[in-house]
Write a structure and sequence with these properties.
This protein has 16 helices and 15 strands. By secondary structure, the protein is an alpha/beta fold. It folds into two domains: 168 residues, Aspartate Aminotransferase, domain 1 (Alpha-Beta Complex); 277 residues, Aspartate Aminotransferase, domain 2. Strand 7, helix 10 and strand 8 form a beta-alpha-beta unit. Helix 5 packs parallel to helix 13, helix 6 packs across helix 12 and helix 14 runs parallel beside helix 16. It starts with 11 loop residues before the first helix and ends with a helix. The N terminus is likely disordered. The structure holds pyridoxal-5'-phosphate. The site of pyridoxal-5'-phosphate has 14 residues, from helix 6.
């Protein structure tokens, strides 16, 4: 028993200082605030594969926080790097000034990516990485005298963060419909979820390469000279783990090449080892022109994102007089010293423990464990790749999302953290997970599924 495990439920208020009176001020993101505040789920500590809840339970982290804590929690090397950095250089302006670690980190990141994706632009989140990549794509065409290319193409059910560019190219209906006007000149390809014959596929599904021809349809509709870029998640995570059919991403690359369109991979989830390769770029052997990342870059410890740009894109900007700014874009906290220190230490941990490829070693065990849930009640599909897994449940008639959300609540009561989106349960544990922890996660989920109405 840890010290926290000896605490009783009634002692939460004493430990956290929270009372039911002071929960009101915090407007929580992507959360049912009123429901949450009736019975708050508070996490107070984290170490390796576990959170400690305020009521003293050890919660197995089946989601790496929000798909980000890839090295696990409380990693000493990262903690010390951040502590040392804050004492040494707390902040340096990112515009017209820099600090050495920002260059060191960019060089190490560029070395992780295949050529020619060898330039790195820093942001503070996945959403900002997406906005940055979209703006780079538009400005790239303008810089080359093709300013008519202003149209952006995303995908239904795509998730590209929450800023206006991201929700415009994104295709998750709930994330768009509250907000009225979107960015003009955006169109969407169909998603690849639910293609007949792909149910319970292990890894990348066989059917559906023809869905890439949707891009051809939109090119013919709009004329290629109007299209700047196509953005896709190699594996769509937030929409419920939607995998690309075999050959689909390669075909998108071919079509983009034929028509002078930039291809953007949104690797905010798939980056940094999630698929068992450093990036989705490596897994699918497809090289886009821009790659957006965040999350695993610092293992979630300090907010940070990065956009990788190919030399073709970067070089298009590096023209004109030397003293002029090439891209009118950036954030006060781009290349923040604490984030750079956290990212450098995170890359050390990934390298020392070979975590960026560990997912490949664990993938088969993970896959077989997940697919053993196939006969549980209400399960209509199971999907997996690397250390990502999804269990899709049949929705309750007239009450979509309720069954999966009930599973999430029951799972938390049974000391495992999972996520749900719609009626899909999604899991993405830290890359340090052991076989016995996979057994615990999946075994507990089995009990949860069996208990659902
Ligand atoms: N893009 C993808 C593919 C994501 O999965 C996410 C977050 O889950 C984002 C962008 C947005 O990242 P953030 O929440 O850091 O802004």
């Amino acid at each position: 028993m840890t010290e926290a495990n000896t605490l009783a439920r009634g002692e939460i208020e004493q430990i956290t200082g929270l009372t039911t009176n002071n929960l009101d001020a915090y407007w929580m993101p992507f959360t049912a605030n009123r429901q949450f505040k009736k019975d708050p789920r508070l996490l107070v500590k984290a170490k390796d594969m576990h959170y400690t809840s305020a009521d003293g339970r050890q919660i197995l982290d089946g989601t790496a926080g929000l798909w980000c804590c890839n090295a696990g929690h409380g990693r000493q090397k990262i903690v010390e790097a951040v502590q040392q950095q804050v004492a040494e250089l707390d902040y340096a302006p990112a515009f017209q000034m820099a600090h050495p670690k920002s260059f060191e980190l960019a060089a190490r990141l560029a070395a992780l990516m295949p050529d020619p994706l060898n330039h790195v632009f820093y942001t503070n989140s996945g959403s900002e990485s997406v906005e940055t990549a979209l703006k780079m794509a538009l400005a790239y065409h303008k810089a080359r005298g093709e300013g008519s290319r202003t149209r952006l193409i995303g995908r239904e059910r795509g998730y590209h963060g929450v800023n206006f560019g991201g929700i415009s190219v994104g295709g998750m209906v709930a994330n768009r419909k509250q907000f009225g006007a979107m960015l003009a000149g955006v169109d969407h390809m169909r998603h690849t979820h639910g293609i007949a014959g792909n149910e319970f596929s292990k890894g990348v599904p066989k059917n559906g390469i023809e869905y890439a021809e949707d891009l051809m349809r939109l090119i013919q509709l709009h004329d290629p000279s109007t299209i700047a870029a196509v953005i896709v998640e190699p594996v769509a995570g937030s929409a419920g783990v939607i995998l690309p059919p075999e050959g689909y991403l390669k075909r998108l690359r071919e079509i983009c090449d034929e028509h002078g369109i930039l291809l953007i991979f949104d690797e905010v989830i798939t980056g940094f080892g999630r698929l068992g390769t450093p990036f989705g770029v490596d897994y699918f052997d497809v090289i886009p022109d821009l790659v957006t990342t965040a999350k695993g870059l610092t293992s979630g410890v300090v907010p940070m994102g990065a956009v990788f740009a190919s030399s073709k894109v970067y070089d298009a900007f590096m023209t004109g007089p030397d003293h002029l700014i090439e891209l009118f874009h950036g954030y006060t906290y781009s290349a923040h010293p604490l984030a750079c220190a956290a990212a450098l230490a995170t890359l050390d941990v990934y390298a020392e423990e070979e975590l960026l490829t560990r997912g490949a070693k664990m993938a088969e065990y993970w896959q077989e464990a997940l697919h053993s849930l196939r006969d549980c009640p209400h399960v209509i599909d199971i999907r997996n790749i690397g250390l990502i897994g999804a269990v899709e449940l049949e929705p309750i008639a007239g009450e979509p999302t309720k069954r999966a959300f009930t599973a999430f609540l029951k799972a938390y009561e049974k000391n495992i953290l999972i996520r749900t989106t719609g009626d899909t349960i999604a899991m993405s544990p830290p890359l340090i997970i052991s076989e016995s922890e996979i057994d615990t996660l999946v075994g507990t989920l089995r009990d949860v599924l069996k208990s659902l109405d």
